[in-house]
Amino acid sequence: MATTVAAAHSQVATNDDSQASSTERGSKPNVLTVSHGDDHIQLEKAATRPDIHDVSQAHPTLLRTTTSGTTGPPFSIFTSTQKKFIVFMASWAGFFSPVSANIYLPALNPLASSLNVSSSLINLTLTSYMVFQGLAPAFVGSLADNMGRRPAYTVCFIVYIAANVGLALQNSYAALMVLRCVQSSGSSATIAMASAVVADVSTPAERGSYMGFTLAGSLLGPAIGPVLGGVLAQFLGWRAIFWFLVILAVAFLTIFLVFFPETARSKVGNGSIPPEGWNMSLMNYLAIRRIRREQMSDDHTPANTETTESLPKSKKRFPNPLASLVLLLDKQVAIILLYNALLFCAFYDVTATIPSQFAKIFHFNDLQIGLCFIPFGVGSMLAALVNGQFLDRNFARWCRKLDIQIKKGRDMDLRNFPIERARLEIAMPAIYTTIALILVWGWLLEINGPLPALLVILFFTSFSMSIAFNVTSTLLVDFYPTKPATATAANNFVRCLLGAGATAAVLPMIEAMGRGWTFTFLSLVLLVTSPLVWLNFRYGMKWREERRMKEEMKARMSVVEDGGESMSGKVKLGGEKDADAQKREQPVVEGGAPELAAVMKGDHGNGRDGKKM
């Protein structure tokens, strides 16, 4: 079997050598066309012939591929069932950050009494949580893009579990404040990584549906968190809240470590490269051990190590928190993030006022207030389920309009595709519906409106807001498919910092202006700033192309300055590739090496003929 695996690699390399003949074509003497099956890559030859691999590693957006056929490797080798499991786990992970923020709300009064501090000081723990909720993903997002998703998730949940144990055992306000910050740091990056996981396994044509399911967890947290917190605080005490989070996190981490595959394309490509080290799940590890034992028993020789040796060795980089902040300098991204943050402020202002205002109007206890969040949760979940279908269908409609064929399982070059319009056409109605509903919400509170009416408005507000959030998150991944965790971390940074300020200001505003005028002011802010979205709708494609050209120019200049001496890959003018270039290939193993394919998919129960061993 060892010979079979080695032969498979050799055959793939040989086929690639014969297919990837590099010749200069047409009337452009400075353009080199590299063919790989039905894929074609055109590169301008610099005077110093920079190394393409170096460029692609530093600037992944520089190399653009236009697929002209249905052959060649698929975007992801994960099956539909595997993708659903991956997205479910990412959604579950994304549930922890918002639920930790909101499950805590019904325990504010018991905590203040237990620690002998004022309610104002306890409320500061909410603000500090949101501040770190915005800061931490800037570090972890960069880590996830450089080191892989599994190491980043593992570190986050170890920190999160330790913080919750400390919170359950602490007896001082200082410990509460510090540990809440640590808890936020451990959980907040999971939302950014959820978007990154979706970008790893889904094409633009199917991304809307997967993003919808992924964001369901993060949107469900604020809705059911207060319900869970109210029940636990009412019957078991406030410490039970943190023990509950410990149990839930340990259950997740156990399943994650055993089954969740590495999806980062910088580590496993389309899933066809076996992971190594931290990036390896227990199922991957057992499959590799089984194959090595079979190799030794069949060949009576030490296990062949060509499989792991053929992987490209990526450089280990310390997480760069500035990577996500740099994205804010781009006008297109800044506009999207600013308006999304304003919507997020309104989202948190609505939820933050429910406990205090419902207690004053209806004299509810903590459990009753928690139950009032159920319509909010139902609206968020429903939006997550249906909005993905809206996005994918509108994407398909634009493809038909532009006479573009969607090839299932194949990535698409979005350079000449109006992805901004395809996405924002779904967001626009939701945004203006949200503005109207927030206005109605405020004046219903002002007149101490009937509870059923308030709950209905709460349901539709959460539904429309969640659609807008989903569209924005999906669009960010479309903009930065090679570094989605970093892009989503930038989104988290802006919206959480603004949300922290809005949450701290909303109750003083209600005391000064009244409920009706406070939410009227919020509605006017959203209405006045809504042209920002229209600017992206109108000029987004132009801005995106300008950004791409700047990135290409920067990449070329940096490689030329570094003194690259040969065409990369290393792709040579005669059509030959050296051994290093062959190692960088990410072939789909569909028949040449079943043993390797089993490792890639984590299937350690099938043999060479697909039968049970």
Automatic annotation (TrEMBL):
Biased-composition ranges for Polar residues?
11-24
| Stretches that traverse the bilayer | 85-105, 117-140, 152-169, 241-260, 322-347, 367-391, 424-445, 451-480, 492-510, 516-537
List where Basic and acidic residues composition bias occurs.
573-587, 601-613
> Chief location of this protein?
membrane
The record's listing under Gene3D superfamilies reads: MFS general substrate transporter like domains, Multidrug resistance protein D
Q: Which GO terms describe its molecular function?
A: transmembrane transporter activity
Q: What residue spans carry the region label Disordered?
A: 1-35, 559-613
Keywords in alphabetical order, please.
Membrane, Transmembrane, Transmembrane helix, Transport
Question: In terms of domain of life, where is this protein from?
Answer: Eukaryota
Cellular localization per UniProt? Membrane
- Membrane topology value: Multi-pass membrane protein
| Gene Ontology CC, one term | plasma membrane
Residues in Major facilitator superfamily (MFS) profile domain copies: 86-541
What's the protein called, per UniProt? Major facilitator superfamily (MFS) profile domain-containing protein
**Phylogenetic classification of the source organism:** Eukaryota, Fungi, Dikarya, Ascomycota, Pezizomycotina
